[in-house]
Amino acid sequence: MSKSRFDLEEIIDLGKWEKLQDALSLVTKMAILTVDYKGIPVTKHSYCQPFCQGVRQDSHLSQYCQKCDARGGLEAVRQNKPYIYLCHFNIIDIAIPIIIDNQYLGAIMAGQLKLREPDMPLLEQVVSRPPNVETYRKFQALEEHYNALPVLSYDEVTKCVDLLLQLSTYIVEEAIQKHTTVDLYKGMLTSNLDASSPNSSQVLDPSDRTYRKIQSIQQELSGALINTKLKNGADRFISSNSVLQPAFDYIYAHKQESFGLKEMAKLCHLSPSYFSRIFTKETGETFSVFIARLKIEWAKQLLESTDLSVNQVSDDLGFCDAGYFIKTFKKFESLTPAVYRSMYKGLSAK
Questions:
Q1: Phi and psi at residue 201, in whole multiples of 5°?
Q2: Fewest beta carbons less than 10 Å away: which of 21, 110, 167, 259?
Q3: Which GO molecular function annotation, any one, does this entry have (predicted)?
Q4: In this structure, is residue 128 part of a structural domain?
């Protein structure tokens, strides 16, 4: 896992993020803290439990809390997924890594609760603390707060963890896209203004070259985010007819777009009728059927590997609306996207 190219403090509004974090803490009953890729907190602690507050205020015990946080965060990064573990007081804690495009940006540290089931899964206690009389005395002073810690079932914990993971990943993805687009826009606009007369007033409109360039960048960023969600995002069709290769390259690089035969023919410097004829000869399918089948294959990957809604999958792959996407999916797979996902997860769980 390489060092992050982004800084959480720069790309997200921490004030708004903390309000959301407080709300999530109330809903999930978990204390929540967000840290950057160095492990340094970038938010306040949302609803830190009184027991944990007391422990962390003790100079001797707080060092074990810090070791737990560090070890839990490292393990989450190593496993590339949320890590549920026990702290030195056998309290449930979770480290949820924020990883975008294989870049570790930071983590959500959550937990400070106990499990309801007596037969809870075997979880690792990441830091052990040697017992002593002084520690026991301090625990007795805080025992009432310990007994008041929130109690959840393991299933409830995993559902809360999934909610935090999906929401944080989505928000940070959107923030990165906006942040990068704005930076590129500013750079190009500055370049344009520098090249123009000092007294000229520059108005950005759809015919402006800078405006068109920004639109292109936004499309590329959107395509890149979709590619990271697909298991085989880097795959591309290698045509035996080199004349057609520009079209295939464009299609695989712009999965989020709706493709037209005339556009692809123009890209290959061919007439639409000739492009259609050699495309069908090359693939064994008409252009419209090939594109539809390909997009349904991509949709299946997203349904299998992500928790994106059917509407979001439809939008991400450039379908005009979810109804048309469902109709097309059913045409090729003989079942709806929702049923396909349910069946796939059922088979995977066996």
A1: -100, 125
A2: 167
A3: sequence-specific DNA binding
A4: yes
List pLDDT tens digits, range 166-223: 888 888 777 777 766 665 655 555 555 455 445 544 444 555 555 455 545 544 554 5
Q: Higher pLDDT residue, 48 or 210?
A: 48
CATH code for the domain of 336: 1.10.10.60
Q: How far apart are CA 338 and CA 344, in angstroms?
A: 10
Are residue 166 and residue 57 in the same domain, yes or no?
yes
Q: Which of 172, 203, 220 is the last residue of a domain?
A: 172
Rounded distance between C-alpha atoms, residue 34 and residue 44, angstroms: 8
- Answer yes or no: is 201 within a domain: no
CA–CA–CA angle 3, 220, 316 (5° rounding): 100
Q: Can you tell me the distance from the alpha carbon of 109 to that of 96, in angstroms, rounded to the nearest whole number?
A: 6
pLDDT score at 204 = 45
- Locate the DSSP E strands across the chain: 31-36, 83-86, 92-100, 103-115, 151-152
- Quote the domain boundaries for residue 291: 230-350
Distance, in Å, from the CA atom of 152 to the CA atom of 243, rounded to the nearest integer, reads 60
> At 54, which CATH number?
3.30.450
Residue showing tokens 């520059």: 202
- Cα(256)–Cα(221) distance, rounded to whole angstroms? 10
Domain count, the chain: 2
215: in domain:
no
Q: Looking at the domain assignment, is residue 3 inside a domain?
A: no
Q: How far apart are CA 251 and CA 245, in angstroms?
A: 10
